[in-house]
Amino acid sequence: MTNIYDIYSLGIMVAVISFLGFCLENLWLAATKGFIDNRNMHLPFLMGYGVLVVGMYLILGTPEHMALTGQIYVSGTKAQKFLIYFLCSMVIVTVGELVLGHLMEWICGFEYWNYNWIPLHITKYTSIPTSIGFAAIITSFMGACFDPIMSVIGMINTQDIEPLSIMLMVMLTADLIVSFRQMRKKHGLNVRWIKYIRQEDEKLLPKT
Hints:
Strand content: 5-15%
Structural class: mainly alpha
Shape: globular
Strand order of the largest sheet: 2-3-4
Radius of gyration: 18 Å
Largest sheet: 3 strands, antiparallel
């Protein structure tokens, strides 16, 4: 049976996943390019990750307890449900990247990212390898981490959880709006800081 969480607990979960998304992207940057940066935000949160994953929970539940919008339960073995969840995640990621990439280019006037260098790319904004990778991470997280983290969030005092959730959502939303307005104004990335992991790569530091 799918667990039912209140909106304030889910709001805090959006913030938790947004922070994990920030860490994930910087881990990828550190491994592939040798640096970390602010990921175009002022705060260490990427709200898109949080909204996407919590949105998937509201639509699909978790892999073991799949239920469309919490009402229509999906039957099958554990492996079958995980596979269905993975495929749904892959479709959602693919569509989401296409929409967000083109929307960002239209609003801000520049390429937010470009996957042309990746084999099996679908336009410059998504690719089969990246969709598989993100879908695997999402499915694994939803299967192993979502409910345990929500259990920890549920331990927060009931008098504190509402103001904490509202404060976090206001902070993340304000940061998103301000950061995107700055990118739209200068038609470029909002690089506030950058730290090279490998000292020899500092000469490649981009001009800001």
